[in-house]
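Follow-up to my earlier ticket, as requested here are the two runs.
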Amino acid sequence: MYALTAVSFFTDVSSEMIYPLLPAFLTLTLGASASFIGAIEGAAETTAALLKLASGWWSDRVQRRKPLVLAGYTIASIMRPLVAIAQSATQVLVIRVADRVGKGIRNSPRDALIADSVDSSIRGKAFGFNRTGDHTGAVLGPLIAFALVQWLHKDVRTVFWWAVVPGVLAVLTVLFGVREVSRRRDTAAAPIDLSQPLSARFWAVLGVIFLFTLGNSTDAFLLLRAQQLGIPVALAPILWAFLHVVKSLSSVPGGTLSDRVGRKPLLVAGWLLYAAVYFAFGRASSAWHAWALFGIYGIFFGLTEGTERALVTDIVPAARRGTAFGWYNLTIGLGALPASVIFGALWDHSGSRIAFDFGAALALAASLGIAVVPIVVPPRPSLTRDGSS
């Protein structure tokens, strides 16, 4: 778990040196529209999601996670900095999709490996801890980008090239720091057929998550909205770092709270908070509103990211965790493309307020949906003094 958290940290340093500058790079340098930005991010995430299903299933079948995790981080670390040589928005699309191929290969096996390595009583905390590493890297990445642009006077393309350094560190950490977890003999299964049905409650949970995802468009639109509200492009990395500070500080408490009070209350609270933030973004009118809303938005991640993953682990058999995370990630990815495309189209044709109201409405509907889904978690095994069951 700790090594994988370090990998997430380095990876997000790399990716977040690029991401907060990407919307301005696409619109101001390459002339892309809001709709095309939505298409880029939606296509990238959908591609990743399709591969997450396949990689999760395969890691269950061969009962090995690390090779897929290593391959995924390597591909992403090679492709991500190539944005520096892009001369058109279409080229960025191709590079982003290739980057997300790596993410698609690694994520489901990685999440299953985390679940394999911890006791059921601390799953929420474990996934929250991993997200903390992820978001801490996402704090440092934008700060490095800001320093390179503002203090060292490097251009955006040079910043993109520097992102290769933490990417290499992530790959080396996987190679030398991550170990395969030997699953218990009673939960290790023979190769299984993907058509073997999972529980009805699992599919019901995925259905509600898909509904929420349809209103959860790329955060690139939040950065564009911040620019509308008067945040200079040079400060975009700082605003993005601020968001991830809040994410990092709230991830472990949110995951731990879900271990204590249950997954459903945390998801309901988080999605209601998301709805409120999106509703407010559509009506914001000054730069300080952007700062405040980005901070509140970070709490939503702390409440929901680790909680969702822990819930998936709770309601599926241990031998099928890779496959279950594959379906979970596929659900999010299939919703990501229409979510970002619809949001971008609404923004272009009806204005940002209507687009944000659309996202808020679907988040509200999803919070009501998860509240009525029956979720009965199997009892956790009692632990001996030394932590074994």
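Run two:
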Amino acid sequence: MKGYSVKGMFRVGVSMLGMVLATQTHGAAGDLLVRAGVSAMDPDTGSESFSSISRSAVRLDSDVTLSGSVAWFFTDYAAAEISSSLPYSPNLEGNARLKDLGIGNIGDVKYVPTYLTLNLYIQDPSAVTPYLGAGVAFNKFYDENARLSGLDVNLDSTFDPTFLAGVELDFGTPVLVNFDIRYTLLDTDAQFSGAINETVEMEIDPVVFSLGVGYRF
């Protein structure tokens, strides 16, 4: 093509690509992103053994609930997010050793995690914007209900580090679709009294999968 050099065309192409990358951002400083959806909690859980029952352990079961979050962008690519959910109601179960003794279904508990994270969004010219986050989770346990006669149980609420990875699907409107995975390093003490009078440390480490719809203001 007469009048155009390869280097000149390359510079124009790079310049146009830079303009696209500059304009195709996930959000802008000051934007507010509100999400609502469903979350599935899958704990990788176990506990210490009761001293009175060798090789015993307790664990929490998986559960699903509704969740929501609010994120505020303080730069074009970084946001502070707070998210929580309606209570999970996982069962508290005994391991194979306890099940052999007829202590398989110990009870249930209400569990509400509230996350405060800093999320960094990866600049991407496509409709898919990945992001990573880290922060702290307040893990609230309450309304413990032991099903075994003569047994009470209480799980301590805790603050623990949490991490997440997610993607936003942007269709060129304020409405977004979101998917993320959260992992929390959660350890707590389970205090048993009555038929079993002992406190054991539980390692719960839940992975939470969330799918939701968001709106950017």
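The only thing I checked on run two: The chain has a mean pLDDT of 85. Let me know what else you need.
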